[in-house]
Amino acid sequence: MSKPMLELHGIVKTYNRGKPNEIKVLRGADLTVDQGEVVALVAPSGAGKSTLLHIAGLLDTADQGQVLINGQDMSGKSDRKRTAVRRDEVGFIYQFHHLLPEFSALENIVLPQLANGVSQSVAERRALELLGNVGVADRADHRPAAMSGGEQQRVAFCRALANEPLILLADEPTGNLDPATSDQVFETLMALARDTGLSALIATHNMELAARMDRVVRMENGVLV
Ligand SMILES: Nc1ncnc2c1ncn2[C@@H]1O[C@H](COP(=O)(O)OP(=O)(O)OP(=O)(O)O)[C@@H](O)[C@H]1O
Prior knowledge:
Helices cover about 35% and strands about 25% of the residues. The chain has seven helices and ten strands. Helix 3 packs across helix 4 and helix 3 packs parallel to helix 5. The radius of gyration is 17 Å and the shape is globular. GO terms for molecular function: ATP binding; ATP hydrolysis activity; transmembrane transporter activity.
């Protein structure tokens, strides 16, 4: 039996409501991602992929509609509750990685674990293992500014997985990567889905990569098809 991990029901989002520059980005988007399922989200630039991911990841709120995470309806929940669910159950890879510039790659992956009560030694071991999976263990002591864009992206991927989320949301996670590295990150993701039941929703412009995921959904005129 498949278990829904992320459910979006009738998500509506309008920016600049009532103003001349009003833009209706989401007009009733529905989506279910099951446990262990990796779904590609494909749409032209500006269609609303980031908006949808931010709402799904509880970083933003919808005007209408419901977001359920692991069966739990998050609509109307307090900020405190939403923050706790986001921290414990959701991993997010931003379009622009948002690594903490004053900390090393390792520290960027250790810190969210410490915030979740994991010990320093366990957190470091996990961070190094994650970095190793995507071929950047030798960059563990580098700060983001001393890494290439692709290396930073891979560190952001590891950070998103640091607290063993149920759901990974990613905004163009392989955008800066060459084909071989992109493949390595992708294979790591698919192995995690297979072995740990991680669910993922991945926005991408890379159609070849999208076709290798379990399912592709397209955003058209503010709905998912
Ligand atoms: N905070 C905001 N205020 C007003 N308009 C916004 C805001 N955020 C996004 N938009 C607009 O909403 C639309 C959807 O933006 P979004 O970033 O979700 O698209 P996207 O599909 O992720 O694009 P890309 O592939 O280029 O990253 C765009 O027209 C954008 O200009």
